[in-house]
Write a structure and sequence with these properties.
12 helices, alpha/beta, 5-stranded mixed sheet, elongated
């Protein structure tokens, strides 16, 4: 088994990652009824009768309407595809229900909550194993016997099948992870990293930044060598250093563009921090939109304007009418 499961598990221990995974890759209308602000981690290590612990799964629960929905996410990063994954999950979901019965002790007539089994797979080979247990068992059975056969179907998210999908224009951290993991070139990696830096500018998201940095240190993209990038403290620093690292690989024009983009992001981040220090942490949406569109020269102009400004409008002039 690949050794980088812990780094992925750390990433999907953040509710923001689970939210983006569900919203971006579970194309079902009922997902719209989930209240993702209620996401809670559930004990994710169950011990079966032969004392084998589950360490490559993550379990969350979330309010779906007036009930709880359990999300059982199994991280499948083995070098070979498990043909009998549905059988494995049948046992794991059984252990989860057994634990719920023993701990929650549902009252007579009270039903157990629904569970969505998700297999998150990042291997090079496309997933070919059957996702429905019924496709693995005998079918030529009398109807009265078929009635008693166990049923289970899991949702497969095969990262590699999305490799050619463009990164969404709005923030989706799961999509960014998949894009970084399956980058074919340094240019691909930097483009995704640029979006990730912009999406995680809020200081409140520093914990997610650290998890992405941990992933980079332990795993890194499969086809891009980033092992010589050390002592990285944030994603912005990684972006700038990688732009310089690929100096010898990329065409001069693209390399220069990468450095300019790094400078632009650094200037934008600095100005935003200055504005938060002067006017408070919650900036209006139009401020972020203005920062996003501005050139380095415009950002520098606004930075100087902070010295004498009494309000945000004094700095941005006619940019605050959105």
């Amino acid at each position: 088994k690949f050794t980088h499961d812990p780094a992925y598990k750390q990433l999907f221990s953040h509710p923001e990652m689970v939210t983006d995974l569900m919203r971006g890759y579970v194309k079902e209308t009922w997902v719209n009824d989930i209240d993702f602000s209620t996401l809670e981690r559930v004990a994710d290590s169950f011990v079966s009768k032969d004392f084998r612990e589950r360490e490559d799964d993550i379990i969350w629960r979330v309010r779906w309407g007036n009930r709880w929905l359990y999300l059982y996410i199994l991280l499948e990063f083995q070098s070979t595809i498990d043909r009998f994954m549905a059988v494995r999950l049948l046992g794991y979901i059984g252990l989860l229900y057994q634990d719920l019965v023993e701990t929650a002790r549902p009252a007579r007539g009270e039903r157990l909550p629904p569970v969505l089994p998700i297999v998150l797979y990042n291997g090079e080979e496309r997933w070919w194993a059957r996702t429905d247990l019924a496709d693995l068992t005998e079918t030529d059975l009398p109807e009265t016997l078929a009635y008693y056969q166990p049923q289970l179907r899991y949702l497969l998210i095969d990262e590699g099948s999305f490799v050619d999908n463009p990164l969404p224009s709005t923030c989706n951290l799961a999509a960014a992870l998949f894009g970084l993991e399956h980058s074919r070139t340094g240019e691909d990696f930097i483009k995704v990293l640029k979006s990730l830096v912009e999406w995680l500018q809020d200081p409140a998201q520093s914990h997610i930044q650290r998890s992405f940095l941990t992933w980079r240190h332990r795993v890194g993209p499969k086809k891009i060598d980033t092992t010589d990038i050390t002592e990285i403290h944030d994603l912005q620093e990684m972006y700038t250093m990688l732009a310089e690292r690929f100096n010898k690989i990329w065409p001069e024009q693209w390399m220069q563009k990468g450095i300019q983009q790094g400078e632009l992001l650094a200037e934008r981040r600095l100005l935003r921090n200055m504005l938060q220090h002067r006017f408070g942490p919650q900036l209006p949406n139009w401020v972020d939109k203005s920062l996003e569109k501005a050139s380095i020269a415009q950002l520098e102009k606004w930075g100087l304007a902070i010295l004498n400004a009494q309000t945000l409008q004094d700095i941005f002039d006619d940019h605050c009418d959105e």
